Amino acid sequence: MKIALIGKIHEDGLKILEKEKVNILEINNLDENSLIEKLKDVDGIVLRTAKLNSKVLSECPKLKIIVRHGVGYDNVDLKYLNNNNIALGITSTSNAVSVAEHVLTLFLYLTKNLHLSDQLTRNGKFQDKVNLPNFFELYKKNILILGFGRIGQEVAKRCLGFESNVYVYDPFVDNQYIIDNNCMPIEKKEGFTIADYITIHLPINEKTKNLISLEEFILFKKNLILVNTARGGIINEKDLFNALKEKKIAGAGLDVFENEPPPKNHPLFSLDNIVLSPHNAALTLECRKRMAIESCETVIYFLNKNKKLNYNNIVNKDFVKQL
Questions:
Q1: With contact defined as beta carbons under 8 Å apart, do 77 and 55 qualify?
Q2: Are residues 100 and 225 in the same domain?
Q3: Has 260 been annotated as catalytic?
Q4: What is the CATH classification number for the domain harbouring 129?
Q5: From 102's CA, which of 121, 161, 226, 321 has a CA 20 to 30 Å away?
Q6: One of 48, 231, 288, 290 is an active-site residue; which one?
Q7: pLDDT digits (tens, 9 = 90+) for 79-105
């Protein structure tokens, strides 16, 4: 049995594969031709961020499963996998806490204007603190969560700890389930008009691309903090730049971009009311360990038909005959 690791993972995951005495192929050259050459005889793949399109996958006749080291899978041709009875796995239980903490970090950083206070103190202007702009509490504020999956639910728990009013928009989740989690279901447009904070936890697809653009920025409150740790392209970056520059909203936090990596001269980089990170919200040490372990276990359990397999980790179970 041969397992390819495309991109580096934590050694705790490697230990699982070594214990099973499988043939491990570590791949760090993500060039398409290199992938085609090296993957032609693998049974399973643990995948970080490389793109596996139909051209690459069609050259993998033995492949039975790909497991994403994470939860998003827009870098894999799912249609091809479905048509060829190849399973797609994710690490569904690993990253929710890390991303939720990142969201709250962005909320607090932007709300408290921490960078301005830090600069003032470092520049010997301690007594000038009265000239700092107003900053605020999360207490009793309206927080809108777009998408109530694993990460959205973890964000909600933490916001409730601040005694915030937590609203949820997710047409695929039963309203009673949202209520049972001490949150309030709300329609998207109404949520946009009342929110003090918005955090996005949705996949990128035809319905969510440019979900937030010029029309939505007109609806938002001027004190809004907007955070996206999901996928780039859900917020129209040009419209976000204009909204921030013209102070139509108070601030934004982005961990994801429409094009990754973003260009060095990206207009958003010139603004001081946005906080940016390099798509690493889920990459705490603890989370990297969990994702490495879960992805390697899923590959091994699937290939060995082990009853320990978490079937919730298989995205396309309806298309995979050997499950």
A1: no
A2: yes
A3: yes
A4: 3.40.50.720
A5: 121
A6: 231
A7: 999 999 999 999 998 999 999 999 999
Helix (H) or strand (E) holding 286: helix 285-303
pLDDT (mean) for 105-110:
98
Assess whether 233 and 102 both reside in one domain.
yes
Q: Does 58 share its domain with 195?
A: no
Hey, is 90 helix, strand or coil?
A: coil
Contacts of 119 (CB under 8 A, 6+ apart): none
Given a cut of 80, whether residue 203 has pLDDT beyond it is yes
Tokens of 152: 């959205």
Q: Looking at the structure, do residues 132 and 184 belong to the same domain, yes or no?
A: yes
Q: Are 64 and 322 in contact (CB under 8 A)?
A: yes
Mean pLDDT of 141-164: 98
Which pLDDT belongs to residue 218? 97
Encode pLDDT of 18-47 as tens digits: 999 999 999 999 999 999 999 999 999 999
List the domain range (segments joined by +) for residue 214: 96-276
The three-state DSSP-derived secondary structure of 111-153 is: HHCHHHHHHHHHCCCHHHHHHCCCCCCCCCCEEEEECCCHHHH
Angle at 12 between CA 29 and CA 300, to 5 degrees: 80
**How confident is residue 247, by pLDDT bands cut at 50, 70 and 90?**
very high
Residue 108 has pLDDT above 90, yes or no: yes
Catalytic residue among 150, 279, 288, 290: 279
150 is catalytic: no
Question: Strands (DSSP E) along the chain, which ranges?
Answer: 2-6, 23-27, 44-47, 65-68, 87-89, 142-146, 165-169, 184-185, 197-200, 225-228, 251-254, 274-276
The domain tally of the chain equals 2
| Domain shared by 80 and 121, yes or no | no
Strand partners, 76: 52
Is residue 201 among the annotated active site residues? Answer: no
Residues 176 and 292 in one domain: no
End-to-end alpha carbon distance in the chain: 18
